[in-house]
Amino acid sequence: MSKHKVVFQPVGAKVEVEGESNILEAAAESGIYINSLCGGEGVCGKCRVQITRGEARPTSHSIRFLSREEINSGFVLACQTEVKNDLEVWVPPEARLEEEQILTTESMVCYQSPQDLEVKDTLDIPSLLYMPMTQKIYLSLPKPSLTDNLADLDRVYREIRKKVQAPTLEISLPSLRSMASMLRENEWQVTATIYPLDEHCIEILSLEPGDTCAENYGIACDIGTTTIVAQLVDLRSGAILGVEASHNQQARYGEDVISRMIYACSRGGLSSIHAAVIEPVNTLIDTLVEKHGVEASNLTAFIAAGNTTMTHLFLGLEPCTIRLEPYIPTANFLPSASAAELNLHLHPNARVTCVPGVSSYVGGDITAGVLASGISNSSQISALIDIGTNGEIVVGNNEWLVCCSASAGPAFEGSGTKCGMRATRGAIQKVHIDSDQVHYETIGGAKVRGICGSGLIDAIAELFRNRIIDPSGKLPRDSDNPRVQQNEGEMEFVLASGDETETGKSVVINESDISNLIKSKGAILAAMRVLLNSVGMSFEGLERIFVAGGFGNYLDVEKAIFIGLLPDIPPERIKFIGNSSLTGARMGLLSRHALARANTLARQMTYLELSVDPKFYDEFVAALFLPHTDMDLYPSVKQVMGS
């Protein structure tokens, strides 16, 4: 089969592909990111690219996503266009991924050129509870003799039992094969890396020459649908040595977990999408060890927290039944694995553990968040909210915990809207409207490319506050506001005119965009209402709300309340806790007690399946207004709007 060269501009990346490959696949092979919300199914229309050299025409399927002007200018959908000859392809700004905002526990980093993180504090774990996942023990063994003729392995076991309580000890066959020569070549001075399988049994992961106890490190990792964050931790002191972040390369198979499940289970198979998460994790590990002068062979523990689908794909487990009723995962509590089994760049015998989940749509990231927030340690009734494509919510205290998940759609990620984009350079992230004057901030202070989720919330809140839209989100057709206009039969509001944008096209928010976001916020609010009603509570009973995740970190609390995304409670009760998934993972890495606690929490949480709860639909319909059909639920908004 013939091969063709494809050059992607403006970076000049080149790749040679088979004739049956499409442009989206060629971009992935060359390391170029192109927006594809649907994972190449041809139903989102976001992968617009321009052919600047060579011949490629849009298919009949993709024409409906392109204007006549775009077609005449050489635009096609990358996922629907086969490479049939040599091509030069221009990737427009709105389709690129540049300088994405990724939230770590303590700081913001850019995935393209990760920055060092100065960390002054470690986790506040009492010394009695400080028991890292793996431990190194120096062994100075007495040489065997006719009067002390124990086998080499029994001799090692005896010395370990002098230092740790270990009713049962185990060792792998590969480690045993090299033991005899290692002990004798190093004068019986070795270091054992141990891993407690449970309270009764300890596994010896490795034996190495001399005393290497000072060099024992672990990796805590948040494997998110959009981004991956990894921390390098000194397992002796608990100090965080560094943090790096990356874009999850699985996005080439779809922005959401459903698209990725479909790809893994029907279109491309599991192996490629599994590799697409292992590769960036390894890149983060390589960067961390290089920057901080650590040998990969001294990385002996790895713990990951992620939603149920991400955990399955990371471990190479089939996710197919997660999306199908009755929504059952392969496992919520997952066995540990060796680094070699997953091809991770750690010591081959390093233990890899995942924080347990609760259900198909409440995963280990939420368990880690509950652990990190301390909800289960207090008598106060609190809520944890993680807002994204799915909105996961946990309510409870130290006596009980209930949780649920609501499908919020892609609006909070800046997707599914006309000018929406991810939180990358040039995205409008803050908006203030004063009559017909719009003031905004963009990520990186760059020229406008589009608008991300936090900007959409700000914009809708400001449009509502200024009475430019009504409670249903409609723009008046007879408005005298110069920014309100009609385009192809739909009303829209101009946030930035063409001369303010990088593309030369106006960035607008239209009625469909507003409707999509109202549905998204309605799903979150309805889920919280159903969860609270299930335990006989209302918003007023919440003493604290913890908002987790990258998106939540950029929310304006007052505007989130104003549109009905968050309950109308005093803002001081609402606390942003950043990347709680990563924090919880690190707690498990440094304390086996904390990891055991995470297992207990996952078992204790009662999960409500909203898809079969008729009350959820009623609450959802009631929430499809700004801020809600029942204005008494939002007295602060009622006061401002005078209604």
Describe the protein's topology.
Blueprint: E1 3-9, E2 13-18, H1 23-30, E3 48-53, H2 68-72, E4 75-77, E5 87-90, E6 101-103, E7 108-110, E8 135-140, H3 152-163, E9 168-171, H4 173-177, H5 179-185, E10 189-196, E11 201-209, E12 217-223, E13 227-234, E14 240-247, H6 257-267, H7 270-291, E15 299-306, H8 308-315, E16 337-338, H9 339-342, E17 351-354, H10 364-373, E18 382-386, E19 390-396, E20 401-407, E21 427-434, E22 437-442, E23 450-451, H11 453-465, E24 484-487, E25 490-496, E26 507-510, H12 511-534, E27 544-548, H13 549-553, H14 557-563, E28 574-578, H15 580-590, H16 592-604, E29 606-608, H17 614-622, H18 635-641
Quick overview of this protein structure:
With 643 residues, the chain is an alpha/beta fold. The chain is 28% helix and 25% strand.
Protein traits:
globular, 18 helices, Ubiquitin-like (UB roll), Nucleotidyltransferase, domain 5, 6-stranded mixed β-sheet, alpha/beta, 643 residues, 5 domains
